[in-house]
Structures are given as C-alpha cells and as structure tokens.
C-alpha cells in the first residue's frame, strides 16, 4: 500500500498522464462520473473502480456529496497478481458485497493508526484480500448471473442446511459473508426471490416432512423441536401455510398411501 484515504465529497480530479500506482476507489454516497481515455461511466454506492498506473483518467461528482474511499498500491508482483485475478484493465465494478471491501479499507486504517514491526505485512495482506473480494464479488455488468449470485450465497445456504434445528439470526448469516444484515436480505431477494427467514422456513418444513415419515410414532411436538420450532402451535401454523394441511394430516395421508 502506498496511500490510503477518503473524501466525504470527492473534488474533481484530472490526470492526463495518469497516476504512478494502482488505485482502487469505492463510492459510499452520491454519484460520480469517471472518464478513462474515451470511456465515460457513472459510479454509485455499491460500485468501485480500478485504475491502472499511468493511464489518463478523470473523475468528478455528479450527485453530491460523492463519498469515496480509496487506496493506492504497488509492488514487484502487483501487475501479475491483478492479471491472475482477471483484473487487467481500468474499469468500474458492481459489487455484490460492498461492505466486504470497505471493511478491508477500514482495517488498513486501523493498522496504520497503530504501527508495529509487522504492520507492512498485515496491510499488504489486507490489500490482497481486498483484491480477492473484487474478484469474487465484482461484476463488470450490473446484473450478475444467477449462478454468480448463488455462488456468493453458497456458504450461507450450507450453513442454514446444517443448523436449521436451532435459532439462526440475520446478523449471524450476514457475518458469514461479512456484510450487513440489510445486504444479506438484498442478496436473498436478488438470488432466490425470498427473504432469509422464508428460505429457512422452507428448509425446516422440508426436514419436518422427512421426519414425520421416518419417525411415525413421534409426537408433533418432538418433530417441531427437531426442526427448530420451540412452540408446536407455531410450527403447525407454518407447516399448514406452506403445505396446505397440518403435520398430522400430512403424515396420515402419506403413510396410508403405502
């Protein structure tokens, strides 16, 4: 890392000969206009842009205050690392996890505020982690494919499948991706068209249907607890809402069909 900072309202910048180092800049508020050679692009919250060294560029606010957080970096292997991550030209990225990259920038600020002998190495590790997040969560087009969206959510979906039998909070799920609870809801809506709690309910009811048939003598109360519902009445309500009949009726119909 060669420099680090941010602006509550970024002033206009004009660099006809570019800048000596690599740059990553991320919008936190407002909207700006970026010009790279003969290309012009707008940059809003949830977006950032990578600028390669010595390339003519300019940027200015369109909607103020245009908040920006930025880092500049260099190094003998920086160009090759970026190339390996498919980050080989100056461009704007849409971020499905903007909180993650901002968190890396904040961590660098904290490291710099209390330097010690290994600070340089730790900051370098954060720069690399930030670039990995741009690679993982960045998209050159506004709409990510369904597969890309599902890939981002995969750790959360696996976690829900493994821990459905106990209380799972929104903050807990958001923590798995290092995003805010609000952002995890956006990811679920974009990828699956439902809120996280609705998706968890589907898992629990699916597991309940399996248990009702595998444990034909078990009371509904027991099945309820096994799939994460403390109160049987609420479990029955949710089961009927999704399946159109009570757990007891479901079990009776399915078992008598064989």
Helicity, as a percent range: 40-55%
Number of strands: 8
Q: What structural class is derived from the secondary structure elements? A: alpha+beta
Distance between the termini: 67 Å
Q: Please mark out the parts with pLDDT under 50 across 5 or more consecutive residues, or reply none.
A: none
Instruction: Tell me, briefly, the overall form.
Output: elongated
Question: Could you give the order of the helices and strands?
Answer: EEEEEEHEHHEHHHHHHH
What is the number of helical segments per DSSP (H or I, 4+ residues)? 10
Global mean pLDDT: 90
Radius of gyration in whole Å, from Cα?
Answer: 24 Å
The largest β sheet comes out as: 8 strands, antiparallel
**Percentage beta strand:** 15-25%
Keywords: DNA-binding, Transcription, Transcription regulation
Pfam families: AraC_binding, HTH_18
Organism: Paenibacillus roseus
Domain HTH araC/xylS-type: 154-253
Explain what this protein looks like in three dimensions.
There is one protein chain. With 258 residues, the chain is an alpha+beta fold. 50% of the residues lie in helices and 22% in strands. The chain has helices spanning 78-84, 98-113, 119-137, 146-163, 170-177, 181-192, 196-214, 220-226, 232-243, 247-256, and strands at residues 3-7, 13-15, 22-36, 39-43, 47-51, 57-73, 91-95, 138-139. Strands 1, 2, 3, 4, 5, 6, 7 and 8 form an 8-stranded antiparallel beta sheet that branches. Strand 3 (22-36) and strand 4 (39-43) form a beta hairpin. Helix 4 (146-163) packs across helix 6. It starts with a strand and ends with a helix. The model has no long low-confidence stretch (mean pLDDT 90).
């Amino acid at each position: 890392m060669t420099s680090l900072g941010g602006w509550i309202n970024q002033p206009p910048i004009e660099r006809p000969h570019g800048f000596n180092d690599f740059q990553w800049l991320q919008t936190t508020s407002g909207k700006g206009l970026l010009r790279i050679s003969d290309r012009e692009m707008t940059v809003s919250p949830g977006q950032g842009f990578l600028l390669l060294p010595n390339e003519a560029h300019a940027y200015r606010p369109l909607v103020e205050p245009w908040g920006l957080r930025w880092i500049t970096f260099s190094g003998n292997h920086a160009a090759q690392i970026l190339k390996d991550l498919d980050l080989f030209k100056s461009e704007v990225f849409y971020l499905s996890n903007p909180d993650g990259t901002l968190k890396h920038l904040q961590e660098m600020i904290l490291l710099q505020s209390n330097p010690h002998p290994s600070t340089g190495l730790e900051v370098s590790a954060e720069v690399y982690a930030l670039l990995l997040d741009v690679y993982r969560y960045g998209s050159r087009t506004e709409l990510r494919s369904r597969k890309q969206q599902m890939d981002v959510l995969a750790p959360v979906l696996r976690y829900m499948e493994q821990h459905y039998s106990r209380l799972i909070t929104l903050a807990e799920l958001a923590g798995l991706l290092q995003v805010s609870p609000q952002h995890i809801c956006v990811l679920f809506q974009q990828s699956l068209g439902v809120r996280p709690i609705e998706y968890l309910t589907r898992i629990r009811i699916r597991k309940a249907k399996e248990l009702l048939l595998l444990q034909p003598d078990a009371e509904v109360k027991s099945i309820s607890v096994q799939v994460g519902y403390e109160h049987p009445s609420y479990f029955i309500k949710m089961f009927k809402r999704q399946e159109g009949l009570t757990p007891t009726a479901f079990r009776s119909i399915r078992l008598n069909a064989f």
